[in-house]
Amino acid sequence: MKLARFDGGRIGVVRDATIFDVSAICGVDPGEWPPVGMVRTIARWPELRPKIEAALTGARGTPLADVRLETPDPWPNKLLALPSNFQDHADEMRGRPYAKAGGKDEGFFMKANSSMIGPADAIALPAGLEGREFHHECELAIVIGTRGRDVPVERALEHVFGYACLIDVTMRGLEERVMRKSYETFCPVGPWITTADEVGDPFDIDMRLWVNGELRQHSQPAKMKVGIAQAIAMSSAVTTLEPGDIIASGTMAGVGPLVAGDEVTIEIDRVGKMRLPVVSAAVPA
Ligand code: MN
Fold first, then answer.
1. Which of 124, 145, 239, 284 is most exposed, with the fewest beta carbons within 10 Å of its own?
2. pTM of full prediction above 0.90
């Protein structure tokens, strides 16, 4: 199932080119603050799923083109991310200042939840930072379904709710990684969450990213140094993973600059596809 958020916090199920509003079934008030409706929907999924499936039988939806999709899971307890998790990306970064200065590529880091945007939004490069490089990183978002602490690797995939496309936009430099990756709009996630059962085996799915139609990045989760299950085991050894938490997979070779006027497209097999413009932010950083 493809679970989306749209038109000001509504929860929807996407089937082909149609979206079905299931906010009421999920008990979600679209205007609520904080916007934790998707987190609660994920936490209650075993109970909600059969109700949603029953309600969809014979239901008339809305054309997907007539709604505005939002990032599906805007208020997780945690947005974790794996650094330099594909060997070909580690290789391409080796000569850069961060690596030369002894920057570490182990464990995980975090991005601010507030950096997340959806498929109808724009990546806004901060003004006043001319001369700095901003890169795209094509990643898989792993969305946690059930709480877990010290999850063993062999049980880790049971904790996955689903997957989404994620672009880890990054300002290169020597400042703390969390800051460089947390600017507003620096984490497009979407276009929806595809549940794990619909994705099936995630290891061989193609992850691709284009800039202005040119293919820049292409790999598969099978090439992650820390795999999906290992990432869940590692992060749950440190933190309690909660329903709705997101882990970004890390990226493969081919990262490169984004400038205002670019259009970036990410597509992951059986997960989804989204295309976002890159603009200049009006507010100096
Ligand atoms: Mn990354």
1. 284
2. yes
Backbone angles phi, psi at 47, to 5 degrees: -80, -35
Q: pLDDT tens per residue, the chain (285 residues)?
A: 999 999 999 999 999 999 999 999 999 999 999 999 999 999 999 999 999 999 999 889 999 999 999 999 999 999 999 999 999 999 999 888 888 888 878 899 999 999 999 999 999 999 888 889 999 999 999 999 999 999 999 999 999 999 999 999 999 999 999 999 999 999 999 999 999 999 999 999 999 999 999 999 999 999 999 999 999 999 999 999 999 999 999 999 999 999 999 999 999 999 999 999 999 987 665
Sign for the CA dihedral angle at 94, 96, 98, 101 comes to: positive
The helix (run of H) or strand (run of E) holding residue 187 is strand 187-195
Nearest to 116 by CA among 171, 76, 68, 163: 76
CA of 138 to the centre of ligand 1 (A): 8
Whole-number Å distance, alpha carbon 67 to ligand 1 midpoint, is 30
Q: Which of 209, 219, 218 has its CA nearest to residue 262?
A: 209
Distance, CA 85 to ligand 1 centroid (Å)? 8
